[in-house]
Write a structure and sequence with these properties.
39% of the residues lie in helices and 14% in strands. The protein is globular, with a radius of gyration of 20 Å. By secondary structure, the chain is α/β, with parallel strands linked by helices. The chain folds into two domains: 185 residues, Rossmann fold; 78 residues, Putative methyltransferase TM0872, insert domain (DNA polymerase, domain 1, Orthogonal Bundle). Strand 1, helix 2 and strand 2 form a beta-alpha-beta unit. Strands 3-2-1-4-5-7-6 form a seven-stranded mixed beta sheet, with helices on both faces. Helix 1 crosses helix 2 and helix 7 crosses helix 8. 41% of the residues are buried.
């Protein structure tokens, strides 16, 4: 299937401190690499529930009675678990990297290669595609997306050009967008296009809001002593995870009451600084370069 090598595999699973008879959740099943290692550490009574919104991931199912693999966006994982009677779990893992398979699969529409359909939906049942964003969002909305998710320097000019072009032709294929990008690019086309395609993907899949909802929901269902292990690849995602693990919210500064007191947050950081890939992993998998692992443990 060509899914990417699981990044920070041992570090993220060791960080969960697997209990052999525990109940664990892999929020991002993908190629099954993290799930396989969790299953290796579980005993006969242990259970693993894994989620992935990409239906292609279901083809990587591991044949193991202790595993239940569910086609669902991780923001709905806790609702699903509650519906089947799972109230508490011992640990939660999420690897937020987009797989090599998704990036290289033309049907996904994540690539800026020529003649790719501008889709970008990880779950094909979603209603909004990248085409819809490019053809219907206002200039101001487009600028905000490119600035926030892609840190694009000339986001205003780019948004103006997109709105201008769509008056005469609709965006359908990567060529349509690439034509605009080439007319205003900085540096190489690849280095300019990559964050723009990334920004569109993050908007189409509502990746940040979904991450925030998943973190809030799952933290309420982890037992005392249980852990959460999250791997990020993007600065915005990492900031959200960092702030949540420190404060239980997503602002850079925690909310306080009128007396300046914070509400008690029943979690502690397992690693104060994020764990990055080793030199050995970087040699094997250069795409792991931007990966950051953060782990927290419930203490109350």
């Amino acid at each position: 299937m060509g899914y990417h090598k699981s990044v920070l595999l041992n570090e993220s699973i060791d960080g969960l401190h697997i209990r052999p008879n525990g109940v664990y959740v892999d929020m991002t099943y993908g190629g099954g690499g993290h799930s396989k290692l969790i299953l290796d550490k579980l005993g006969p009574e242990g259970r693993l529930y894994a989620f992935d919104q990409d239906e292609n991931a279901l083809q990587n199912r591991i044949d193991d009675d202790r595993l239940m693999l569910i086609h669902q966006n991780f923001e709905h994982a806790c609702d699903y678990l509650l519906a089947i009677g799972i109230q508490e779990v011992d640990g939660v893992l999420a690897d937020l990297g987009v797989s090599s398979f998704q990036l290289n699969n033309d049907a996904s529409g994540f690539s800026y290669r020529p003649e790719i359909d501008l889709d970008m939906r990880m779950d094909k049942s979603m209603t909004t595609s990248a085409k819809d964003v490019l053809n219907s969002y206002s200039e101001e909305m487009l600028q905000k997306i490119f600035q926030r998710y892609g840190e694009v320097r000339n986001a205003k000019t780019l948004s103006q050009k997109i709105v201008e072009l769509r008056q005469t032709q609709k965006f359908q294929k990567s060529n349509d967008l690439n034509e605009v990008l080439r007319s205003i690019q900085f540096g190489t086309f690849e280095s300019y296009a990559a964050p723009i395609y990334q920004a569109l993907r993050m908007e189409v899949n509502q990746e940040l809001p979904a991450l925030e909802r998943m973190l809030e929901a799952s933290s309420k269902h982890i037992k005392v002593g249980g852990r959460m292990s999250i791997i990020t690849f993007h600065s915005l995602e990492d900031r959200a995870v960092k702030n949540f693990m420190k404060f239980g919210e997503f602002n850079d500064e925690p909310t306080t009451d009128i007396f300046g007191k914070r509400s008690v947050w029943p979690w502690k950081l397992y690693n104060k600084k994020p764990i990055g890939p080793s030199d050995e992993e970087l040699k094997i998998n250069p795409r792991s370069r931007s990966a950051k692992l953060r782990i927290m443990q419930r203490v109350g």
